[in-house]
Design brief:
Two copies of one chain form a homodimer. Chain A is α/β, with parallel strands linked by helices and 230 residues long. Chain A contains seven helices and eight strands. The first copy, chain A, has one domain: 3-Layer(aba) Sandwich (Rossmann fold).
């Protein structure tokens, strides 16, 4: 099943529309996005195969989704660790971080040490608004994601990939091919170049909005907030 | 299993604590509460046994939980109808209502007509902050809930029950015994008098807060946001 994709420009427009005429708050959308991410981890990494999840969070909304996912993962029984080197002053992200600290979830500054002690990695560094250069301290983080044998789930986009054109031809992300991807709301054009397991989250989209943006609403099962695209 | 309960006063204090030192926003908590309610409906009312769900919403947070639940129920494949006669000017409730209208979920003013055309009812009229009188137009609504043979799921409290002392000795709620109850965050003392199926939602509570308020953290399964107390 090849779902229709949403360009970076339309993804930004849709996000904006959800929060204006759609009447969703960012808190609500991020809670639902992070919940979706946590459900994908649950499918990819059974608790019995290792509970340690390293969540690498970038400075924007993609990182916020990672913070929410980490909270849900804790409640499922995982042991998340957070790498969040560029913490925003944004009130929402600060609150999401506080919620994790109240659960005594550790934050680390040492990604390269942490990657040696985890069973699964969530790449929540850059999402659909990424373009251009990978700034410090993320180049070496993305190289480590590229080189590790630990499975990686990318949130919305493999970090450093171009949203339209996929894997970069040079730079730290050259050759970075995560094991799995969860597209949020809708797949972006980069999925054409993606080979791993692919999930979609966004079980809140109205049929009218899906039609307006020419998106497919796939069939979710039961109470699932995600669906695997096969 | 008899879980420890949370008095009305402590429920209010805990709610306040979650939104201040706990750093949760009301949007977030309501999204999680409504999601829990929707999962209880899914367990009680299989889609194959009838999809029509009448959600009766009161003017406060309990009603807001009902509005969120209705949105999730729609996405699961149910056909919700909303009875929401006292709509607050509160921005959050207005946004939650807008989200339902964008899904073309019908709002009705005629509860007594609607109850004849539904398969399941969600009582999201009054929650833990209820005390005193049942005001118009809810007395006849609660009488209808009492008299109907359609199964009713009450959110946090059977509406009109006293949070501490349970079923009222007089008034419209006398003899109202819903089939099921979902306690949010923690059971309230009224559960002592409740005989039906009992669910708990609140898979976001930190061990530290549970300890402070002397609450039990039951074992949730898998990705469930609810657990049945048996």
């Amino acid at each position: 099943m090849a779902l229709r994709t949403l360009s970076a420009k339309n993804a930004a427009a849709l996000d904006q529309e959800l929060m204006t005429t759609g009447a969703f708050s960012i808190d609500q959308l991020m809670e639902l996005a992070g919940l979706s991410v946590s459900q994908a981890v649950f499918k990819l990494q059974p608790l019995s195969s290792g509970k340690r999840i390293l969540v690498a969070c970038g400075p924007g909304n993609n990182g916020g989704d990672g913070l929410v996912a980490a909270r849900h993962l804790f409640h499922y029984g995982y042991q998340p660790t957070i790498y969040y080197p560029k913490q925003s002053k944004n009130d929402l992200y600060q609150r999401l971080s506080k919620q994790l600290k109240d659960l005594k979830i550790p934050f680390t500054d040492d990604f390269h040490g942490a990657i040696e002690q985890t069973d699964h990695i969530v790449d929540a560094i850059f999402g659909f608004s990424f373009s251009g250069e990978v700034r410090e301290p993320f180049p070496s983080v993305i190289e480590a994601l590229r080189d590790t044998k630990i499975p990686v789930l990318a949130v919305d986009a493999p970090s450093s990939w171009n949203i339209e054109d996929g894997p970069p031809a040079s730079g730290p992300g050259k050759g970075f091919t995560p094991d799995a991807l969860i597209s949020l709301t809708a797949p972006k054009p980069l999925v054409k170049w993606f080979q791993g397991r692919h999930f979609l989250g966004g079980r809140f989209l109205s049929p009218a909005v899906a039609e307006k943006y020419e998106l497919d609403l796939p069939k979710y099962e039961g109470l699932d907030q995600i669906v695997e695209i096969v």
